[in-house]
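Friendly challenge for the regulars: who can give me the structure tokens for this chain first? No prize, just bragging rights.
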Amino acid sequence: MGWIVVSLSQVVLFHSTTGSKFMPSGTVTPPTFVMWKSLAQGENLGWQRQWFGYELEPTAAFNVRGVGICEPMFNSDVYRSIGTGDWLIMFFHEAARLDRDNEAPSVGPNTLILWPPGAAQFYSWGRAANVEPHSWTHVEGSWVSRQVEVNRVPTGVPITIDDEALITCPLRGLMDEMTQNESPDPIILRNLFENWMRAIARHTHRNDSQRRVPARLVRVREFLDEHFAEATPLNNLAQIACMSRSHLCHQFRANFKTTISSYVVRRRMSIAQRLLFDMDRRPGEIARAVGYPDIYQFSKQFKKTFGISPTQFRKQNMQ
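First reply, four minutes later:
Bragging rights claimed.
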């Protein structure tokens, strides 16, 4: 038996056996098993969950931040109004709730959903805690966005996947590469993810003829991924896209569902999260590394994005 912290912005504890909820008080025993932490090595629960932090390169094209396979859904409601700063890809093996306003399950078994950075996330079990399994991964980097876009994988909407092996096998591949090798191979990881997205796209689209994101917009996004810490003039981006500034802004938002400035902020904040795992880096250094010469401006934006300050985030994840 143990305790689980199910929210970073509002700490709510759930008992892992009864599923009952408790608000923290002076008499509550400190949790020993918390969200964002990995399972003890060798612990055999019939499901897997592993988080990664120190192993990651914040500016890499692809990072696997965490993987869970057939993990029970302990907590009744998870709601993150601005997401987690990365991509959350989640598969519900049984019926689940994705509608905050409806107590009944809103999707059936074998449902996949991809939440991009900055997108609101809500999910809950359909029947009871500690029973219904879900599989998931938190990933980040330009490689994720590119594969989702190139393969036209729908985001933010439920996708029915007939064969759960299409989800669990690739997740095990990512898990094995991250845990069974002293130095995970970034090329192998990217190939595993690309093949996964291609398989999902083939299953999802079959005979449809939806258009792909224009290559010149993809080039703009790749430039922003590489130069996220710079204040790139809009005129320069328009030249890359070979279109007017106003047309670029319109097309970027239409294809990526966000503005250029918001995309850059999300990219900066996602990388700042990773850098905060490095205790040798001072907050001011991290602020400058992600494009904020003023540490107060950086802290303000970080708190606006994640609901907590950089210092609080570091304390919560280093305990």
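Confidence is low (pLDDT under 50) at residues 1-35. The chain has three domains: 1-35, 36-205, 215-318. Your move, everyone else.
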